[in-house]
Design a protein that fits this description.
This protein is an alpha/beta fold. It has 2 domains: about 220 residues, TIM Barrel (Alpha-Beta Barrel), CATH 3.20.20; about 40 residues. It is built from 7 helices and 10 strands. An 8-stranded mixed beta sheet has the order 8-9-7-6-3-2-1-10. It has a two-stranded antiparallel ribbon with strand order 4-5. β2, α2 and β3 form a beta-alpha-beta unit. The N and C termini lie far apart (about 60 Å). The model has no long low-confidence stretch (mean pLDDT about 90). Bound molecules: zinc ion.
């Protein structure tokens, strides 16, 4: 049977509180437990939706008490342009908080992040990299400063073992009906529109039973090593995503050009 997990990105002390309240209300109504990526010291200007909330950690503990899974989402989410030639696991974005940095630097960032979590009595067991960008050094550094066992990222139709971690793939950014497999839907509550909330609500009204508590996967799934099928799936999925993005961009360009041409015709007439 197909199963889904919801992942909420970019919880931080400057998140859009109203929208996070809205998503919490919807998820509670359908008893859905998400994975929440928390940025312990946000310095990403694009994520400054409000003034600093001094009670962020109380909120995180409240979520934890409802069995929401808390994940470490980097240290400050301040991403830099990745240098050409620096390899990363999921080349979805050309910016990162970690990719290409030396082990010592990555360790330092992750240690600082872990320290803030611990100081506030929260012990995450999941890592999700800002912008999906991380490399082997990120995983090595994470191993040396934390007990984290799970990675929320990657493309496959199933969770797997890789580089000593248990990976729960994250393949979707909105709900799509799939025939089988375990799928994570990634949402960014602070930037969701009213229509996004409405569409999520409609989806959950019909499909909420397909959404599982991530702890069920963590505790009961029989993880096996990343294999050729995962690799083929990942390559195919990346190619499809690339084409989808290109078609969308080209279509937008085409529409823009048509509008410009129409305006010119109007002026000439
Ligand atoms: Zn993020």
């Amino acid at each position: 049977m197909v199963k889904y997990i919801i992942r909420l990105d970019d919880a931080c002390d400057t998140q859009d509180m109203q929208k996070w309240n809205e998503i919490e209300k919807i998820l509670d109504e359908f008893s859905i437990k998400p994975i929440v990526g928390v940025i312990p010291k946000n310095q990403d200007e694009q994520l400054k939706y409000s003034k600093k909330n001094e009670n962020l950690w109380d909120l995180i503990k409240k979520w934890q008490s409802k069995e929401w899974v808390i994940a470490l989402h980097g240290y400050n989410h301040k991403c830099f342009k990745i240098k050409r030639g620096n390899r990363q696991f999921l080349p979805l974005n050309d910016v990162s908080e970690f990719v290409g940095l030396k082990n010592k630097e990555q360790k330092k960032k992750l240690q600082k992040s872990i320290d803030i979590f611990r100081k506030n009595g929260v012990y995450p067991n999941v890592f999700m990299a800002p912008c999906h960008s991380f490399d082997v050094e990120t995983l090595n550094s994470l191993r040396s400063v934390s007990n984290i066992n799970f990675i929320s990222d990657g493309f496959s139709f199933r969770p797997y073992l890789r580089y000593g971690y248990k990976w729960i793939p994250q393949q979707l950014w909105k709900f799509k009906l799939m025939p089988f497999g375990i799928w994570t839907v990634c949402l960014h509550p602070s930037s969701m529109s009213n229509d996004n909330f409405k569409s999520l609500y409609k989806t959950l009204k019909v499909h909420s039973k397909k959404f599982v508590n991530p702890n069920q996967i963590f505790n009961n799934y029989k993880f096996s090593k990343y294999n050729l099928f995962d690799f083929i799936f990942s390559c195919t999925y990346r190619v499809l995503l690339f084409f989808k993005k290109s078609v969308k961009n080209n279509l937008l360009l085409l529409i823009k050009n048509i509008i410009v041409q129409c305006k010119k015709i109007k002026i000439l007439n």
